[in-house]
Design goal:
The longest helix has 20 residues. Helices cover about 40% and strands about 25% of the residues. The protein contains eleven helices and ten strands. A seven-stranded mixed beta sheet has the order 2-3-4-1-5-6-7, sandwiched between helices. Bound molecules: guanosine-5'-diphosphate. Guanosine-5'-diphosphate binds next to helix 1. The site of guanosine-5'-diphosphate has 18 residues, from helix 1.
């Protein structure tokens, strides 16, 4: 029986998320960059090991939001990000716990999901005897499991991987173990576009939009892509397009850059914004509409 699921990786910039992923993920997606400000892509990487597959995803904006006042809108935004995941992995720096960490934890706690905390960089702890009490404190914060690791040294990671796999639901794998197929590239492309939309639109448009990749053709040097951004109301369409088309142009340019990095080829990306009233009521989730061509 195969296990497969989404794991949300949460953590302040510089706590070592990229370093951790590099160790966890054998089949590494090239869209991950090492710079803190660019590690916000929705899909980070896939860790496949025999019957197990963990798909690591990012939670864009959760730390931006944490800086603002906690309100319902913020909780809703985080909810839409976390709706589809099976497990939350929160990365912190050894025994440090900031106000930002606390606010993020409060958002996470509103989801009935399993929560692990990874105490990274334990190699920097001078007093080893401080580790056990620090783990106890983490446990009091309501984490299901606690993993002291050093991502840089690669220590403590195997128990973490095994525990992650154990929490994933029994279902077939989403990705082939060692290659990116056309289908999964379409999926990645729609995820990249969706992430840029979320980031650039902020709270302006509720998370009632979907991205459907209509056309995807890859030749030796070029990838030609057409995608629909589906919204519910004409007012939302105006916001997505922006004044004089500025917003959608910017979103398209940012997405194109990331897709070029992903494919290693030149990318032509055409985005169309379409209004389809009520589509989200019938859809099980944004993501599903985004990558299930059978629905169209
Ligand atoms: P991210 O912004 O959360 O993705 O963090 P990065 O993975 O880019 O790491 C931030 C910095 O912390 C880098 O300089 C890493 O080399 C360093 N780092 C990551 N993990 C460890 C660790 O386990 N121990 C130590 N000492 N440094 C680490």
């Amino acid at each position: 029986m195969q296990r497969c699921g989404y794991v949300a990786l949460v953590g302040r910039p510089n706590v070592g998320k990229s370093t951790l992923l590099n160790h966890l993920v054998r089949f590494k997606l090239s869209i991950t960059s090492r710079k803190p400000q660019t590690t916000r892509h929705v899909l980070l990487g896939v860790d496949t090991d025999g019957p197990n597959q963990a798909v690591y995803v990012d939670t864009p904006g959760i730390h931006d939001h944490a800086r603002r006042e906690m309100n319902r809108q913020m909780v809703r935004a985080a909810t839409s990000v976390l709706a589809d995941v099976d497990l939350i992995l929160m990365v912190v720096e050894r025994d440090l716990w900031t106000a930002d960490d606390q606010r993020v934890l409060e958002i996470l706690a509103t989801h009935g999901l399993a929560r692990f905390v990874v105490m990274n960089k334990v190699d920097l702890m001078r007093r080893k005897e401080a580790l056990l009490p620090a783990m106890a404190t983490m446990s009091e914060r309501g984490f299901d499991e606690i993993f002291p690791v050093s991502a840089r040294k690669g220590s403590g990671l195997e128990p973490l991987r095994r525990a992650v796999f154990e929490r994933l639901p029994e279902q077939p794998h989403l990705f082939p173990p060692d290659q990116i197929t056309d289908q999964s590239e379409r999926f990645l492309v729609s995820e990249i576009i969706r992430e840029k939309l979320m980031r650039r639109l902020g709270d302006e448009v509720p998370h009632h939009l979907a991205v459907v990749v209509d056309f995807y053709q890859e030749s030796e040097r070029l990838v030609d892509i057409a995608a629909d951004v589906v919204v519910e109301r004409p007012g939302q369409k105006r916001i997505v397009i922006g004044e004089g088309g500025e917003k959608i142009k910017l979103i398209g340019a940012e997405a194109r850059r990331d897709i070029e990095r992903l494919t290693g080829k030149q990318v032509m990306l055409r985005l169309w914004v379409k209004v389809r009233p009520g589509w989200s009521n019938s859809a099980a989730g944004l993501r599903r509409v985004g990558y299930d061509p059978g629905r169209r």
